[in-house]
């Protein structure tokens, strides 16, 4: 019964985050065309790059520097994509299976799929959360990218519709149940403050990397960390 409830929650979280995040693909489609890319170039970026921060960084550099800035755009996108490597290491035991299966999961290893997977209570629910979110966003993001590229001039600024806030709200919904312990609150607040300070001072995506490092350092320095891990391991064992 508990396993069925965890599975339903994984599906619910995955679909909810997929819908909220995919809708913001309209913004990328519109901005890509406005930056000088044609519809197909914009869509190919979503199909092959598929990491929002890197895509927006690429388009932003091209928009300000034209095609002459292409090397800088590629470098910026690659720098922001580094975090996905860290996600891949964390998700490898969640995905499990053969090497081929783990490699097939790589394109879907993004912020959202990692967050949804880690928010679940058991191994099976984590796998479901990962795949539902990753595949769901990939399909939805590409469809909405095409829509934004085709209708960019008609839609205007997609931020006027609050689509940028929808994805953030979905993340907050995942985070909220984990804020029942003081150590989680401290880590979250520390990372949030650092990200807020770094946002106006660094290029898009970098605050996420900095905040992640801060969260790890603060969590490692927290007293009672070992006992919390023991409790989490016990809970996970019971869920299995």
UniProtKB/TrEMBL annotation:
<feature type="transmembrane region" description="Helical">
    <location>
        <begin position="128"/>
        <end position="152"/>
    </location>
</feature>
<keyword id="KW-1003">Cell membrane</keyword>
<feature type="transmembrane region" description="Helical">
    <location>
        <begin position="182"/>
        <end position="199"/>
    </location>
</feature>
<feature type="transmembrane region" description="Helical">
    <location>
        <begin position="158"/>
        <end position="175"/>
    </location>
</feature>
<keyword id="KW-1133">Transmembrane helix</keyword>
<keyword id="KW-0472">Membrane</keyword>
<feature type="transmembrane region" description="Helical">
    <location>
        <begin position="57"/>
        <end position="82"/>
    </location>
</feature>
<dbReference type="InterPro" id="IPR011606">
    <property type="entry name" value="Brnchd-chn_aa_trnsp_permease"/>
</dbReference>
<keyword id="KW-0812">Transmembrane</keyword>
<protein>
    <submittedName>
        <fullName>AzlC family ABC transporter permease</fullName>
    </submittedName>
</protein>
<comment type="similarity">
    <text>Belongs to the AzlC family.</text>
</comment>
<feature type="transmembrane region" description="Helical">
    <location>
        <begin position="205"/>
        <end position="224"/>
    </location>
</feature>
<dbReference type="Pfam" id="PF03591">
    <property type="entry name" value="AzlC"/>
</dbReference>
<keyword id="KW-0813">Transport</keyword>
<feature type="transmembrane region" description="Helical">
    <location>
        <begin position="15"/>
        <end position="37"/>
    </location>
</feature>
